[in-house]
Amino acid sequence: MAKLTIPRQELMYSGHAACPGCGPALAMRLLLKGLGPRTVVSVPASCWTVIATPYPTTALGVGMLDNAIEATGASISGLRAAADALGLGDLNVVGFAGDGGTADIGLQSLSGMLERGTDALYVMYDNEAYMNTGVQRSSATPQGAWTTTTPVAGEARGKLEPKKDIMAIVLAHHPVYAATLNPSFPEDFVRKVEKARERKGPRFFHVYAACPPGWRYDSDQTIELGRLATYAGIFPLYEVEMGRLRITRRMGQLKPVEEYLKAQGRFRHFSPEEVQQVQEQARARWDDLLARERAANPPERAAVPGEPASPALPPPVAGEALGRT
Questions:
Q1: What is the pLDDT of residues 224-253, one digit of tens each?
Q2: Which domains are present in the chain?
Q3: How buried is residue 235: exposed, middle or buried, by Cβ count under 10 Å (0-12/13-18/19+)?
Q4: Is the separation of the CB atoms in 237 and 155 below 8 Å?
Q5: Cα–Cα distance between 55 and 86 in angstroms, integer?
Q6: How distant, in Å, are the alpha carbons of 17, 30, 44 from that of 58?
Q7: How far from chain centre, in Å, is Cα 152?
Q8: pTM for the model
């Protein structure tokens, strides 16, 4: 009999207002399974304030606070300070914000929370546009994608700029733990949440969060689309712990990106040359991750008789190592 690795307890209830096939809804459900009931979630203006809290109801079995769209990092910093002052050191303090509220409007607040070493978990659910207000482009929208503010008509070919690398920005702040997560791989998702729950200091998740109406695909394809994203190298899964990167879902060979792109209306205008460009970018991204993993975990060299042992390198600086709260 297979061993159940995902907790049975449900802390997200039916009757919420999410669209069918909503990636952020799947992400929240798995996140709370891993964190448990001793959790408070701060959410900015986004799809999730509509999904979970149309007054006077809630879809969550944990405390939830609405905050201004630019202030999630500040909100969870305040919640952490208040919880500690009340002796609630075991409370999981979580910010759950979209890509617009994180990589754009809330970037300064995220940076401040990470730099101060706040003992909290910041989750960016990435549906790659401002979906709650009408599918407008964000800095996390992929290059070439259709949105209502980056149309495809005549010579217009969707968003001109490349997707912002939010993980590179986060890792420059030396968090205790950071990882990419994808609801299409629930065991990997929950394992990372449980690992983050046991850490003290600033932690960050970049979560793949597919959006059927915004990405223009059938809602029953969300899980399969997420798998394709990882298998094609569009959204690789890895974790960075105390500065050391480890890939958590390996592929012997990446799948062609064409199947992933053609499944979504926002990319259906891509020419063969544009598909090839995405393929090359995915290959380069995967090769870079492999190289970074090797650099962070070099093989041990056999000792040479008579040669003094090399001193151990100190761990990378992070909030936990500095004793920050």
A1: 999 999 999 999 999 999 899 999 999 889
A2: 23-152+161-296 (3.40.50.970)
A3: buried
A4: no
A5: 28
A6: 10, 17, 15
A7: 28
A8: 0.91
